[in-house]
Amino acid sequence: MSSSTAEAGHARFGVEGMTCANCVGRVERSLRKVPGVTAARVNLATRQADVRFDPARTDREALFRQVGTAGYTAVALKDGRVDAERELTELKGRISVALIFGVPLLFLAMGPMMFPSLMAAEMRLNPSEGFWNLILMFLATPVMLGPGRGIFRSGWRALLDRTPDMNSLVMIGTWAAYLYSAVATLIPTALPEGSRQVYFEASAVVIALVLVGRFLEAKARGKSGEAIRRLLELRPHVARVLRNGVEADTDIDALVPGDEICVRPGERLPVDGVVVSGESRVDESMLTGEPGTKARRAGDRVVGGTLNGNGFFTFRAERVGSDTVLARIVAQVEEAQASKPPVQDVADKLVAVFTPVVLGIALVTLLAWMFLAREHALSAGLIHAVAVLVIACPCAMGLATPTAILAGTGKAAELGLVVRHGAALQALAEARYLCLDKTGTLTQGNMQVTLFCSAPGHDAGKTAALAAALESRSEHPIAKALVAFSRQGPAKAGAEDRSPSGEVGSPNPCGIFVVDHFQAHPGQGVSGEIAGTTLLLGSESFMTRSGIDISGFVPDAEGVQATGGGCIYLARNGQAAAFFGIADPAKPEAAEMVQMLDVLGVAPVMLTGDQSAPALATAASLGIKQVHFGLSPEKKAAVIRELQGNASVGPASTIAGGSSSSPKSSVGKVRVAFAGDGINDAPALAAADVGLALGQGADVAIESGDVLLLAKDLRRLPQSIALARKVLATIRLNLFWAFAYNAVLIPVAAGALEPSLGFSLNPVLAGAAMGLSSLFVMGNSLRLKRFKIDQAG
């Protein structure tokens, strides 16, 4: 499907013809001038523009026209991307023409200087220097008028708009060399006798080298976007829809919610939905990054793009088209790739003045050589000025950040990490604290009865069934744990039974009792009547407030609390009847996650609304030293703001295991990340510099947090930090290279070393160096593709 992404007030489309950071700025400025445009971002690596606008004042066609007036071409996206094959094919054609004429031109122009025998052969063929200059001009002219035309057109428009770019530098340099050589060839008397050298190779061969560099850069850009392409390729094009009992092949774009789709062994699922019949095991590694398959049967959710195992099942489509998990992941990653992290701001400011500064340096170089050189002053000044113009490379500056973001976010997607914007990567890389919710994040979020004890005179089996019946209508995790315990019995539920009789008997269904006068007591418990028996079920404070003596269960309660568990009591007709020890076990990988954070120098901080005993016990078992308990969602956000200011911890917060070993920063704001389920932690996610939402596989909420972990494995948290640091380090190295390259080689091209060392760069070598500079940045960014999840320390 070929289209540009266009919604009410939003359009994303391709922009062809951009070559450097100046081009990006020029297109952005041009789009922002359109009435009704509220925001415009252009990405050099993806060759895409992302524009927000008021649909009442402008439309997509107007945006396309505006891009055209800026000297570039707006194109529709194909499967969310610019058609790279067309660009590569066009470049191949231009390079072929440039090389057909440029290679013999370089051979004839430079060969006699390196091989005296070649010069002798030329003199034997024709001793006239003017003849050979005409041959060189004949070879250079087609390159200037053919393959170089696109460069010159863009460069000239940029000059007219007073926003010169790399095309402008190449245009001025190559035409200056060509026209000077043409005058020396056709009207030699117009130049001083010692300045009649020709430099046709400095025009045509430089054009060829620039085009070759752009071709290799385009190939490298394609590799950096492979991760997204692989995700898109997971979608089958056809689905087998069951209608009126008959299977019919249907194009995936024609599917609608409610369609029943048949999936055979080894097939990929076309869209998201719920299994209706049959069962199988499904490989969701493309979504979560976790190997292995998961059982899926009637009622379970399935995700489009995942791979069916050996079973056969049908499922009902629920989310199709752009609403599927896969489509939303791709959209979020593309959004991140189009964004700019703060580290890019300095580069953008420098790029804005780079080209005018280079033009000034080239002019100074020309004048300096003309006035200071002892011989061939004009030609020497010209050749050095051309070398300065050609070697200057704003390309590398423009590619430094977006190529790293492109490769990094693509790699993150492969690992089950969805990064929503580039700034999140930088904030995550700089995080010094990782705040973690307890229930459901560090723990399994699945309450279990770990200890059961009935009082003397109370039948253990009936007591457990009464408690479960009282809680049977509740969705609270503790209620679910009591119901499961009653149905399964202590052995299957994994609970210790300390009832006087030593047995609960067979599992007891809770539905055989009718509950009357049921009442919930928020934060305390529940009450009701069953067959004339008054029941109270809840916490210690609830029992105490109700006048129930629970002293007989004190030893058991103390043992449960010491291990971080909670205590629930059941009273029958005013007497304590049973005690339940409730625990939410820590996730098996949580302790390893804490160790990995320690290696990275990131301090884990537990933020929980739970009470002190279970919070401290869980933290101690995992090795977390800083714990804040009894917090409301707003207080969690307040703790995060304290950490960001590097403030000391107040008395309302407790440090488990002694003093905190969290890192300190002496300068500026401390970066704080927060990881939670993305549901009840909105204030904390908003307060943190970067929010990480833990996904739930098929039930993932794509819009939660700045970074979404599709896998439930907590080790993905330090792994995401390690990847973010790798991306940021790559960006910084790219920027250092881009600026250092120009700072070192522009003076060399100007001839600064020639008086002392006799060394200089001619325009051909300068052109090659300019191309290699961009390729270095691309190659450095592509190293992110080799990042392994075990590189998190």
Q: What does this protein structure show overall?
A:
This protein is α+β, with helices and mostly antiparallel strands and 793 residues long. It contains 27 helices and 28 strands. Helix 13 runs parallel beside helix 27 and helix 15 (422-429) crosses helix 25 (716-749). The two termini are 43 Å apart.
Key structural traits:
about 800 residues, eight-stranded antiparallel beta sheet, alpha+beta, single chain
Helix content: 40-55%
Class from helix and strand fractions: alpha+beta
Q: What distance separates the N and C termini?
A: 43 Å
**Low-confidence parts lasting 5 or more residues at pLDDT below 50?**
1-7, 501-511, 647-667, 697-702
The total beta strand count reads: 28
Number of alpha- plus pi-helical segments: 27
Radius of gyration: 35 Å
Largest sheet: 8 strands, antiparallel
Average pLDDT, all residues: 80
Principal-axes shape call? elongated
Strand content: 15-25%
Topology:
Blueprint: E1 5-7, E2 10-16, H1 21-32, E3 37-43, E4 48-53, H2 60-69, E5 73-75, H3 84-114, H4 116-125, H5 129-145, H6 149-160, H7 166-186, H8 201-224, H9 226-232, E6 238-243, E7 246-251, E8 260-263, E9 272-283, H10 285-288, E10 293-296, E11 301-302, E12 307-308, E13 312-319, H11 325-338, H12 344-372, H13 377-391, H14 394-414, E14 417-419, H15 422-429, E15 431-437, H16 438-442, E16 448-454, H17 460-471, H18 477-493, E17 496-497, E18 515-521, E19 525-530, E20 533-538, H19 540-545, H20 554-562, E21 566-572, E22 575-583, H21 590-600, E23 603-607, H22 612-622, E24 626-628, H23 633-644, E25 654-655, E26 671-676, H24 682-687, E27 690-694, E28 707-709, H25 716-749, H26 754-757, H27 763-782
Parallel strand pairs: 15-23, 15-26, 16-17, 23-24, 26-27, 27-28
Antiparallel strand pairs: 1-2, 2-4, 2-5, 3-4, 6-7, 6-8, 8-13, 9-10, 9-11, 9-12, 9-13, 14-28, 16-22, 18-19, 19-20, 20-21, 21-22, 24-25
Helix pairs in contact: 3-4, 3-5, 3-8, 5-7, 5-8, 6-7, 7-8, 7-13, 8-27, 9-14, 11-14, 12-13, 12-14, 13-25, 13-27, 14-25, 14-27, 15-25, 17-18, 21-25, 25-27
